[in-house]
Amino acid sequence: MNLQFPKDFIWGVATAAYQIEGAYNQDGRGESIWDRFSKTHGKILNGDTGDVACDHYNRYQEDVAMIKNLGVDSYRFSIAWPRIFPNGFGKLNPKGLDFYKRLVNELLENDLIPCATLYHWDLPQVLQDKGGWTNRDTAKCFQDYAAIMFQEFGDVVPYWITLNEPWCSAQMGYGNGQHAPGIKDPKQAIQAAHYLLYAHGLAVEAFRSVTGNGQIGITLNMSPKYPASDSPEDVAAAQRGFAADVGWYLDPVLKGAYPEEIFQIYKKHNLAPEMEAKDLDVISTAIDFLGINYYHRRILGAGNPDSIFNYKSYPSVYEKTRMGWEIYPEGIYDLLVYLNKTYGDLPLFITENGACFDDQLVEGEVHDHQRTKYLQDHFVQCHRAIEAGVPLKGFYVWSLMDNFEWAYGYDYRFGIVYVDYETQTRYLKDSAKWYREFLTTQK
Ligand code: IFM
Hints:
Distance between the termini: 15 Å
Number of helices: 15
CATH class: Alpha Beta
Bound molecules: 5-hydroxymethyl-3,4-dihydroxypiperidine
Number of strands: 13
Strand content: 15-25%
Number of domains: 1
Radius of gyration: 21 Å
CATH topology: TIM Barrel
CATH architecture: Alpha-Beta Barrel
CATH superfamily: Glycosidases
Oligomer: single chain
């Protein structure tokens, strides 16, 4: 592939704490909502849990060497809040903090840029027992935890992400119950979304009060919505769909207001979140970049009496990944251009993009040509967006290695590195070898 990205473009790989660390009860780590949820019968495919995962907690040096060997610039990881504050707040666990110190040192010694996510879904269970993200106090606890992280790592970690995909935390955690804490209540989901956003804003405020040259942003999952036809009804349905699950997060952060149409629909159904006068000011505290997790698009059309938004989903047109997600690389281009036009010249990062396929390990090799092609096609579209003037600054492949894919357990593999969970041996898939080769052409 003959593409030249800007020389300062940041290439990376990404993971999240609960998905890879394991060591669930080591060194004083507290219980998280995912420990509790994954051990609840019937919640996770095959009854898998994150107890051991990739055992990264004990193998981080080997894993950092592997990241270095890929030739990337940066590693995006998340910090497990219950390792730092086993009770969510109060007494800090020095051994938990020490793990991230060792990890960050290892990255820096290998000239890898750390990019730390503060919350990738593993809320301390103690806070869930008090209502979790439906309790305003959780946002304050998050701010305190974030402030400590900025004090400890502010001078060595240049990129910070407050929350990963708050839509998933709120809608899958409290709305449809597919994720921890497994609640099915639309009202709680919308309230949780508000306090997640409020927590984000409080953390950005804390960041601004700590000295350092770092940058901070938020990562949102975004699937662009395409109308099923050119009819004004279908076009409006697609716009409504985007506003409901992407605009609901983007607009408060970047414009200081919820999308009016969606807010009115929630109000009509008695679902609008409770909030205080200054909340939206806090939520819209200026960020330095926006993180985008892009995997697929959705096609929507008008009319569905079962949806308060009155839209329905149409089947995808193109091939799908094992997740059932349509492969649509042009969607990442359309999304990037749309974001740039709508929200201005805020630097953008693809903080996740990748694909799940049914990988087979044969004699130490995984010929995952579909994943390689998926990545290549998305790189092409990102390059197109940069040429069109979009300030895209980096791209993190999801994921460095196979890991605990939430409700789908270990059977669903997203890694460019294959993990044999029996032996914890890592094998570079063909996609990883291709990525490494590609990166040599970018420097
Ligand atoms: O594995 C997840 C990740 O934790 C969040 N974004 C989507 C990925 C694939 O489902």
